[in-house]
Amino acid sequence: MKLLDLPLVSSLLLAALPLLVACAASGRPPNPRPVAAAAGAGAAPAPARDPHSFARPEEVAVDHLKLTLRVDFASRTLSGRASLRLAPHAASRLHLDTRDLDVRAVTLDDGRAAATFRLGDPVRFLGRDLEVEITPQTQWVNVDYATRPESAALQWLTPEQAGGGKPFLYSQSEAILARTWIPCQDTPGVRMTYEATIAAPPDLLAVMSAENPTAKRADGVYRFAMPQPIPSYLLALAVGDLQFHPFAGNSGVYAQPAVIERAAWELADTPRMIAAAERLYGPYRWGRYDLLILPASYPFGGMENPRLTFATPTILAGDRSLVALVAHELAHSWSGNLVTNATWNDFWLNEGFTVYFERRIVEALYGRPFEEMEAALGRESLESTLADLGPDSPDTRLHLDMAGRDPDDAVNDVAYEKGALFLRAIDEAVGRQRFDAFLRGWFDAHAFRSMDTAGFVAYLNEHLLAGDPQLAAKVDAAAWIDRPGLPASAPAIVSAAFAKVDGQVAALAAGTAPAELATQGWSAQEWLHFLGKLPRPMPASRMAALDDAFHLTASGNDEILAVWLERAIESRHEPAYPTLERFLLQVGRRKLVKPLYAELAKTPAGTEMALRIYGQARPGYHALTQQAIDRLLDWRG
Q1: Is the pTM of this model over 0.85?
Q2: Is 416 noted as a catalytic residue in this protein?
Q3: Strands, E, within 109-220: which ranges?
Q4: Average pLDDT over residues 191-205
Q5: What domains are there in the chain, each with its CATH number?
Q6: Catalytic residue among 416, 459, 597, 621
Q7: Torsions phi, psi for 277 (to 5 deg)
Q8: Of these residues, 329, 371, 417, 526, which one is catalytic?
Q9: Region 568-580 average pLDDT
């Protein structure tokens, strides 16, 4: 998933208290241990329990889910049954994660035997433990339930909010929001297959992270199957007025009618990306790889739901300049979906691997200079984050301690960019051919399994570093994984293209008129680097000259536009304010809108403007974006 936009939560002690109580009651250790120094060359220790789940999979684990749900736009609810098949066990109780679910009944096996169950006390952001009495002979647990309109995973859009003539529903389960629409063992350490029957309005198409239809059914009833085992955060559903455009081979794109042709053109390189990924790290193991372009309220760049990536419409720039996002979500089909972080403390195993893999795909298709620009932008973002967090912040380590915090609030681009730099450092230390063989071996050896950081370190020691203490010292996994900040040996990222851009920034600072700068043929990445290097703030007259020369306020690339609008707020470039307001009202991608609200909030006049706009925009934002902006603006509503 392309996050890279979440703030660090500073209220750790207050947030930790209810979880520590819950951990004590369940016997779960709340704090992970350092892993890099402790792990030897042998087998990895057993994974730590997930501090973000009530489930006890070591006692009994769910291995298959059968969903039967009805979609009701009028009440904004899903209702029906979740039947959970249990792996062989000797347990007397099953613990499930729920949050804001109305549990109506629980039965066992064939559904005729009522089960004794209880819902535990609510724990902030974790929800409630659904404890069901079972016997060692119990094979199925059936939960009849309904979601609530405020389910944090689900966004119900009116036709106007969806940007079309019909309503739209989509889910966002990562990190721990699957429990807000399905009772489940909501931990990435548990994998299950699933099937579903979804009853939707007959004029809408339902799709899931599963084998999907490509056309609407007259009765509105759709059946799905996901034969490969997945963790709960990859459960996904969307219902809307969708059309499908196939690409060559095993891929295509779904979108609303007004968007489908643009999406088909923009994403036409998807089959080439799949082929490049397979050449690097082995076969794609999920059957099809399709994409779904969601309405503009979608809070993230993309979500790697297996078989069906959910994606923001902001990638439709009209010039295919932002398709690295597709490479990222595709790469998750190996790093994340195939081999999954066992807990959210190990998030870097998903995202650091995926950023590294994404850039290898980009390099294979578009060349090393393009990859260097992407990597340089990532390094700039990482250094900004490290400066904001501070050199000694524990949240700048790869292996985190997130007990007591909501994973959706505590993730930043350290997992992405520091993780990718660590793999780049290993690549440079051992050589690409050897590292590629190692990485493919990692994916093959742990396919359809959940792994923690200790498991990776053990595999690294055994299969790449064993018998070579000098190489182990050069890689220095502990420095990356368990220590804050960046090691001094972190790879430098050099982009020749960006060096030329820096020359134009210097020329501008020396007085060259914007219209005289050598910007012909610049890529979106070069423009993003240029805007990031501008003096802050700029004189209003210089901002006006830049806008006159390059029409930045009219940019059709939302990534460029968002950065330009942030500069406009800093520099009081008021001619851009009408575009700023339209952007905040129309776009819900958190990475793009949060910095704009943050910059507005630095002045009294800007805060007043931010609150006025947010009051109008908030109903159209997903709950995850609302959560971030509510805190930022101290929203009282």
Answers
A1: yes
A2: yes
A3: 113-114, 117-119, 128-133, 140-147, 154-157, 168-171, 191-199, 205-208
A4: 98
A5: 12-48+342-470 (1.10.390.10), 62-241 (2.60.40.1730), 496-633 (1.25.40.320)
A6: 416
A7: -65, -40
A8: 329
A9: 97
